[in-house]
Amino acid sequence: MLDQATLNQLKTVYADLESSYRLLVSAKGHAAEKELVGMMHDVASVSDKIELVEQDAEGFETRFERNGEALPIVIRGVPGGHEFTTLILAILNADGKGKWPDDGIKNRIAALKGPIKLVSYVSTGCVNCPDVVQALNQMALIHPDFQHEMVEGTHFQPEISERKIQGVPAVVAGDTLLHAGKADLAELLDKLEAHYGAGEIETTETKQYDVAIIGGGPAGASAAIYTARKGLKTAIIAEKIGGQVNETKGIENLISIPYTEGPHLANSLFEHISEYPIDILEHRRVERIVDGDRKTLQMKGGEVVTTGALVLATGAKWRQLGIPGEKENIGRGVAFCPHCDGPFYKDKPVVVVGGGNSGVEAAIDLAGICSKVTLLEFADQLKADGVLVEKAQSLENVTIHTNAAAAKVIDNGDKVTGIEFENRASGQLETVVADGIFVQIGLVPNSAPFADLVELNPMGEIVVDGHCRTNKTGVYAAGDLTTVPYKQIIIAMGEGAKAGLSAFEDFARGNIQPLEK
């Protein structure tokens, strides 16, 4: 089932396994038995530390044992597509290998109040699902009373319907939808602490730096590399290295690289940062900043960092409509990722809100699988590139409304049934029947945590000068959250470098005092 190149790669990945593992597969009589057993047979074949055991038990799942003891991870269905990596990492992580959270985050995970039992629903074509599943698997391996089950929805449609799952990833605790949509470990940990509570967290000592960068995207990574190269003690604090880049599919305008994809670029950023003596504090969210000659950053979980220079590079996030019915229906019909959630609406009517490039591209993509696509644009004409507009207008199952102001998401108590919009030309309210609403109206700067620290413009962007300096001495900003025009990866990288060099210049001029060597 797996090609020879993949098998050779797995042999290398599993060459240093220390423990013995058993893959307990239950699939007797299932229509996809051959597919699941074949996959697990191939995985087991690459190492004498892995054994496949076919069981007669009911179900369609794979359980794991390490040295004869059950692991707290279950995979239901066939973990193909993007979830194949989840299968491979389940074994690798159980062996203590791979990329793990540091001790500060492990302490927060261990402090969660158990028992915790979660079920995550995914699809193999979902690009955001692996991050959620793999983060929860790691938590289950760290916490003493944490069970996590991944369900690949293809073979469990009745269960999906009964649970009223309308998008993936969807994380369920009992009868409660705990989370829907993309998330990193930091966001998931916040939600688990809110839902289950947490005991006393083992604290770590205050860390001191010359430069601390908040944000791990192209701007933050660039700033960190430039300050580290100048000999400044540097830390990068981020929820996830790569930031918004992780959600980008094809990238064709990063000069000298004809084509790459977001996750690959994010991995390259991490590798490049790791080449320098930079402390990577990932899965962190800064809760409070205390200004002074040295800035104090207080993070959730009690960790504290002090720094002479602070670079803000937290980028931007998907902009929401802010209309009734939107927030409460996220994961139950309201979505932001057509690539991830589109397959759930096969042969069903959907609405796309937003007439820019992302909105029109989404409408074109969804038209290939959905029965009907209605595109709503607030302005009197679409803002997308002409070639995209021409393509959308040529599709028989795409209807376009301009001068349309989304007013309300309609639901039946369980899921979305449509959207109400105002015809701005006539002033009349109109309704579109739909099972899904895809919101594609751009990005909003992640600047809210810094509103009391630095100057923002009316759009929420941090105001910077030509050197990335803010109105606060020792505080710099770079990337998509600033007033610099054109939100592009290559521009963010340049601005991050500029912020790092400006910080070094201020240290050299004595405007900021470095740590004593």
From TrEMBL:
FAD binds at residues 210-225, 470-480. One of its GO terms (molecular function) is flavin adenine dinucleotide binding. Residues 209-496 form the FAD/NAD(P)-binding domain. It holds the Pfam family Pyr_redox_2. Binds 1 FAD per subunit. Transmembrane segments: none annotated. Residues 122-190 form the Thioredoxin-like fold domain. Its cofactor is FAD. Keywords: Disulfide bond, FAD, Flavoprotein, NAD, Oxidoreductase, Redox-active center. It comes from the Bacteria. NCBIfam families: AhpF. Homodimer. Belongs to the class-II pyridine nucleotide-disulfide oxidoreductase family. This is NADH dehydrogenase. It comes from Pontiella desulfatans. The gene is ahpF.
